[in-house]
What we know:
By secondary structure, this protein is α/β, with parallel strands linked by helices. It has helices at about 50-55, 80-90, 105-115, 120-130, 145-160, 175-190, 205, 230-235; strands at about 5-15, 20-30, 35-40, 65-70, 70, 90-95, 165-170, 195-200, 210-215, 220-225. A hairpin with a 2-residue loop joins strand 4 and strand 5.
Amino acid sequence: MAAEIEVENLVKNYQLGKGTIVRALRGVSFSIQKGEFVAIMGPSGSGKSTLMHILGCLDVPTSGRYFLNGIETWKLSDNQLAKLRNKEIGFVFQNFNLLPRVSAVENVELPLVYNGVRNSRKRAIEMLEKVGLGDRIFHRPNELSIGQQQRVAIARALIKDPLLILADEPTGNLDTRSSEEILEIFQSLSQEGKTIVLVTHEPDVSKHAKRIIRLRDGVVIADEVVLNPVLAKEILQGIPGEAVA
């Protein structure tokens, strides 16, 4: 079975001033199968953000090859990359990036509205129900907890039914219970066949994934299968009360 993500000897260099080159990635290779939940870990400067940008078709490598579902992304123009990104990739960020003056359902339906898709409201409500916010669809972000805002962001990422969900430190601003609720959603999505790639610096978060890829100084130093991933559902059973934030 062909991998959904395949990167081969990715190199990314940045020119900083005259004669100064930063080597962010130094030959990264791995593959990810459909439905895998993979955590990418590494200290600051390890190259994980650069790798995330390439996987999200927000940037291209200096050299090397990146296949997304068999598509040779390094051969695409900027417009073609934008179309691929818009169609096949859902992004979840640490800071949510929600529009503050519109409701949850309006935030979620935005990707479809921009593309002129009809019945976007119905689809947006379905996605909010999927992440447990069916009773909050008309609330604005400032009327939601931080954890609920992140669930809105996940619903927005899901609305186009993408091949891949890229999550960049999605639990970084959350309390323990809210973090586990978000990780439970990712684990459920993986079981449904969605491919999840999560960037984190938190070991406790990475242990929820089925696999951990560790970067340091722009190279992969470990690629580990997690034999017994932490189940967020079980952790939540031991945390009393509702999330405060």
